[in-house]
Design brief:
It is built from 7 helices and 4 strands, in the order ααβαβαβααβα. It is an alpha+beta fold and about 160 residues long. The chain has a 4-stranded antiparallel beta sheet, with helices on one face. The chain is globular, with a radius of gyration of 17 Å.
């Protein structure tokens, strides 16, 4: 699948089959994230792949987590001044987009969650995230799609662009 097709057809997947995503596939997808642009080559992304015990512990906090075949927490290393931290957070968002497009190209679905469970102090504690050193960017849920939602309407480019003389 070429990148334009991946961008146009990618969907957020919330329902997964029980089929496991092989570790080597997950590693390839996360590696795509490490290739994202980042100012000053700070490489601020951190990935925490939840094993069975951590997955079960998170599902005890939020039962919906039990339906997610693979969960990866994504954080941003906190370094430098406020401007650098803003740039680094943007770089981690770029990394997540790379991961999502790479996953879609391989037939793997993904959802990026920034909801209450992802951002709760309880989740951070459960995952061993030091709030002084890392900021939670979200949880990534991976699996093979059980259902693919239709595309949603998007604004036309003319509605969101300004052209200056």
């Amino acid at each position: 699948m070429n990148v334009q097709d991946a961008i146009r057809t990618r969907r957020t997947i919330k329902e997964f089959t029980p089929q496991a995503v092989p570790a080597d596939v997950l590693d390839r997808l996360l590696t795509a994230g490490t290739l994202a642009q980042n100012h000053r080559l700070t490489e601020p992304w951190r990935f925490c792949i939840l094993g069975p015990q951590a997955h079960a512990a998170l599902a005890a906090v939020d039962a919906k987590m039990a339906t997610k075949p693979v969960i990866v927490a994504v954080t941003c290393a906190l370094q430098g001044d406020a401007f650098q931290r803003k740039e680094d957070y943007a770089a981690v968002a770029c990394a997540v987009q790379n991961i999502q497009l790479a996953a879609w190209a391989e037939g793997v679905g993904m959802q990026w969650s920034t909801g209450r469970t992802a951002m709760s102090p309880e989740t951070a504690q459960l995952l061993g995230i030091d709030a002084q050193a890392e900021e939670m960017v979200g949880l990534l849920f991976f699996g093979y799609p059980a259902a693919t939602p239709p595309a949603r309407a998007r604004r036309a480019l003319a509605e969101v662009v300004r052209r200056l003389p």
